[in-house]
Amino acid sequence: MILGTNRNACAWAAAGSGIALMALALAQGGAFAQQPKSGGKKGAGRAMVEPLAMDDRTGFTPIFDGSTLNGWEGNLDFWRAEGGTIVGESTPEKQLKLNTFLIWRGGKPANFELKLDYRMNSTNSGVQYRSVELPEVGKWVLKGYQADIDFTNVYTGQLYEERGRGFLAMRGQLASKTGADRPRVLGNLKPNENLRGWVKTNDWNTLHIIARGNILTHVLNGQTMSVFIDDDPAGRAMEGLLGFQMHVGPPMKIEFRNVALKTLP
């Protein structure tokens, strides 16, 4: 995340309202789940929605082999593969002057789900998606959507656009943006402090990103952290690069494991 970017605005797209409201209801406790009916009425005996299984990787393909950075590209002064994890690390002797990214070179996913585990010990990081490179700024610099994560858990779970439109959906928000208007909150998922309590410090967290059309969803440890409907044709991206961020600042270590991707229609 880069702080200080202007926050452009937003509005609500009627075309996405049904999906968005369902996402909001599910995040609030499954209001749209089918309940068993009785008394011989139509729909009797219908099963409820399947419960969440965070470790379900059906249809997912690993994009990190666990031992090398084959298929990935970045500054190897800071990135390495070690013990089944991707590690990004800076030290007092080796500090970043610019946010740098490890970029997956296996394609530019459009509609997809991405699942991974991460652990960090300082500062700020993020998972980039539907992003583009900015070689004029620096090598291995990305612009685009970011599932934000930070050590103090102020921003973890929100949707931020790196080097773009800035904050799009804060943690706990279902938000939307149209044209030059500022992003607008359409509904609240759960209170920010409630969701913050689900983020583990100095431990492994499971992040699930769902990008389908112009609707982007971040789920962390089974909790819906943010949902964003991007109805800004000039500003949005419908496909792009995946990557991991190392942020300027104090020395930090970020680890990623069990990185898997599922392509959606």
Description of the molecule:
The strands form two sheets. Strands 1, 3, 4, 6, 11, 12, 13, 14, 15 and 17 form a ten-stranded mixed β-sheet that branches. A seven-stranded antiparallel β-sheet has the order 2-5-16-7-8-9-10, with no helix packed on it. Mean pLDDT is 88; it is low at 3-19 and 24-39. A hairpin with a 2-residue loop joins strand 3 (79-82) and strand 4 (85-89). The protein is built from two helices and 17 strands. With 265 residues, it is mainly beta. The longest helix has 11 residues, at 17-27. It has one domain (62-263): Sandwich (Jelly Rolls), CATH 2.60.120.560. The protein has helices spanning 17-27, 192-196; strands at residues 61-62, 72-73, 79-82, 85-89, 100-104, 112-120, 124-133, 142-150, 159-162, 166-169, 173-178, 184-188, 205-212, 215-220, 223-231, 241-246, 253-263.
